[in-house]
Design goal:
Helix content: over 70%
Number of helices: 1
Largest sheet: none
Distance between the termini: 149 Å
Order of helices and strands: H
Structural class: mainly alpha
Length: 107
């Protein structure tokens, strides 16, 4: 009887130890999966940051080009406006000269 009880105890202990080992192995697998998922999440976040930085960079470059182009256009308009003003001024001077040369009777 004592030997039978010892065998049962040993069997129960072995069974409990097997269950604990199985649970520990399952926890280890779950822990590894969790660690892998966390690493994948961090990688995805880093990739998103990289994509955001690229988008921001492209947006800034695009805006810089637009601003530069606008400034060039404004400068060209200012130069064109100054030339037109000079032409107008020269034309007025020429008209004044012609008027001075005309005889009073022609006026």
């Amino acid at each position: 009887q004592h030997a039978l009880n010892s065998c049962r105890d040993a069997h129960d202990n072995a069974k409990d130890e097997g269950t604990r080992a199985k649970k520990a192995a399952e926890l280890e697998v779950l822990d590894k999966e969790h660690t892998d998922a966390l690493a994948a999440s961090e990688t995805a976040a880093a990739n998103m940051d990289t994509i955001d930085a690229r988008i921001d960079g492209e947006w800034l470059r695009s805006n810089a080009k637009i601003i530069h182009s606008t400034k060039v256009t404004m400068l060209e308009l200012a130069i064109g406006n100054e030339r037109a003003h000079q032409i107008q001024h020269t034309a007025l001077l020429q008209v004044e000269e012609q008027l001075k040369r005309m005889a009073p009777a022609e006026l």
